[in-house]
Amino acid sequence: MDIIAFLKSQFICLLLICYIFVMTGLIINFLQLCTLPLWLINKQLYRRINCRLAYCIASQLVWLLEWWSGTECVLYTDRKNYMKYGTENAIVILNHNYEIDFLCGWDFCERFGVLGSSKVLAKKELAYVPLIGWMWYFLEIVFCKRQWEEDRKNVVQSLLNLRDYPEIFWFLIHCEGTRFTEKKHQISMQVAESKGLPKLKYHLLPRTRGFALTVQCLRGVVPVVYDATLNFRNGENPTLLGTLHGKKYHADLHVRRIPMEEIPEDEMECANWLHKLYQEKDHLQDEYFKKGTFPGTPIKPPTRPWVLVNWLFWSALLLFPLFKLVANLIISGSSLTLITFSLIIIVASVGMRWMIGMTEIQKGSSYGNNEMKQNN
Asked: What pLDDT does residue 376 have?
């Protein structure tokens, strides 16, 4: 093991990374809170500022993938469409099979300059979680309780609010509603059989109502849908913990650009269209596992320097007072300094455990174990 790999595996390095992330998040959350009065004066300026503030948090996780672990991300797409990425609003349909698939989605956004303004459909509970959840609240992320009758009105209003958004945005959506597990897949395929739908090998049945509603509300503002299918080479099963330890993964992302005009406006026809799309995604995954690659020409979108610049800035800002505190602790040995330092260690440790726990498959949402037995 070389010296760099050895250092990346050390707990103190992981602790420092999480300390920087947690402290950055708390500072940014406070700054976002301070921008709230601006909403009443200049809503569009408020939105632009919060896109940049959100970038300070989200890009640290992308830094973890791109610069710390050195994960290689290869894009398979049409070259003509490649030139349009980052220049238009889009709904991005992602498969939900891996612990870090959200991170790869963010990396996709970052490569084309839309990370700060990217949107997701997230469960309501996350709005109350510090750092990421609070960041999303100020960023006008669409939250739902996963109770359709309760959600519909709130989701519609949140989506309609995005129609005058001043920045180019991508709306990332996992139509399956929850991460793939064997148990959920078994239940999902029972539903498919009861509805006379073709069974899927690598995906859960998509939840069509949320997608149809998203398309309905954003049609005319969002001109395209990007169908994104993610896989990892050589049977890799990436985890956030592995990424924190600097383990390098090899991600392949196949993206198709689908004009909104090709998606039916009728809700039932839109549902049928989405089921057909997931059958195509399933076939695409099947081919990948047989050949080890997606069809098309591989493209490596260049990494942008701002992820690294942002992380270096916050590192310099936050590590100096930490090291000064440690020096004072060594020199003085005072009880107050010792308690303060211990609290920082505890907060960073809890933050690291929380980050990892949010992505672990075995600790994922139980959503889908029973709900899939109900109608979409």
From this structure: 47
Q: 61 in the Ramachandran plot: left (φ > 0), alpha (ψ -120 to 50) or beta?
A: alpha
Per-residue H/E/C for the chain: CCHHHHHHCCHHHHHHHHHHHHHHHHHHHHHHHHCHHHHHHCHHHHHHHHHHHHHHHHHHHHHHHHHHCCCEEEEECCHHHHCCCCCCCEEEEECCCCCCHHHHHHHHHHHCCCCCCCEEEEEHHHHHCCCHHHHHHHCCCEEECCCHHHHHHHHHHHHHHHHHCCCCCEEEECCCCCCCCHHHHHHHHHHHHHHCCCCCCCCCCCCHHHHHHHHHHHECCECEEEEEEEEEHHHCCCCHHHHHCCCCCEEEEEEEEEEHHHCCCCHHHHHHHHHHHHHHHHHHHHHHHHHCCCCCCEECCCCCCHHHHHHHHHHHHHHHHHHHHHHHHHHHCCHHHHHHHHHHHHHHHHHHHHHHHCCCHHHCCCCCCCHHHCCC
The reported pLDDT for the residue numbered 339 is: 73
Question: What distances in angstroms separate CA 25 from CA 28, 32, 37, 134, 298, one per listed residue?
Answer: 5, 10, 20, 9, 35
For residue 12, count other CB atoms closer than 10 A to its CB. 8
Is-above-0.85 flag for pTM?
A: yes
As a whole number of angstroms, the distance between CA 313 and CA 309 comes to 6
Give the contacts of 290 (CB within 8 A, at least 6 positions apart). none
Q: Look over the chain and give the mean of its residue pLDDT values, rounded to a whole number.
A: 87
Does pLDDT of 307 surpass 70?
Answer: yes
Q: pLDDT tens digits for 11-39? A: 788 888 888 998 999 999 999 999 999 99
pLDDT exceeds 70 at position 373: no
Place of tokens 């909104």: 260
- pLDDT of 375 above 50: no
* Closest to 283 measured CA to CA, from 166, 220, 197, 199: 199
Of the candidates 64, 73, 72, the one whose C-alpha atom is nearest the C-alpha of residue 8 is: 64
Q: For tokens 């220049």, what's the residue?
A: 87
Is residue 176 within 8 Å of 101, Cβ to Cβ? no
